[in-house]
Amino acid sequence: MQTTSLRKGENVSLLTARTVLSVAVQGLSADVSALLLGPDGKVRGDHDLVFYNHPAQDGVSVEGAAVTADLPRLPADVHRVIVVVSADPLQPGAVFTRAPQLSIVQNRATKASFTAPDFTAGETVVVLLIVSE
Question: Is the pLDDT reported for residue 3 higher than 80?
Answer without folding.
Answer: no
